[in-house]
Amino acid sequence: MHLTLKKEATRPAALNFLQQQARFDDFIDCYNYQRPPQALAMKYPAELYRPSPRSYHGDYDLGFFDHETGRLASIQNPFAAKVLPMSPE
């Protein structure tokens, strides 16, 4: 899919990001509803899609993988609110 997306939606590039987004949107519509791939037994992806039964809560863990210990280590949240100390004056 990625090569097809690249060929059909990015070459040549659109004049601005809104036109480029429209090309991506058109590609997604065509991919999901208009041309069935052989890998899905000639069914459209939109026919086979089922929403996940698990709910999404939107939380995430920020961290990095430590290759030496083989563990995920947490880092400080770069999106957290930053409160500056008040001036003593």
Structure overview:
This protein is of the alpha+beta class and 89 residues long. The chain has a domain at 2-48. The chain has three helices and two strands, in the order αααββ. A two-stranded antiparallel ribbon has the order 1-2. The longest helix is centred in the N-terminal third of the chain and has 17 residues, at 17-33. The radius of gyration is 22 Å and the shape is extended.
Order of strands, widest sheet: 1-2
**Percentage of residues in DSSP E strands:** 5-15%
Described by strand count, sense and barrel closure, the largest sheet is:
2 strands, antiparallel
Helix/strand order: HHHEE
What is the mean pLDDT?
84
Number of strands: 2
Oligomerization: single chain
**Looking at the structure, what is the overall shape?**
extended
* Cα gyration radius (Å): 22 Å
Measured distance between first and last alpha carbons = 61 Å
Helix content: 25-40%
Low-confidence stretches: none
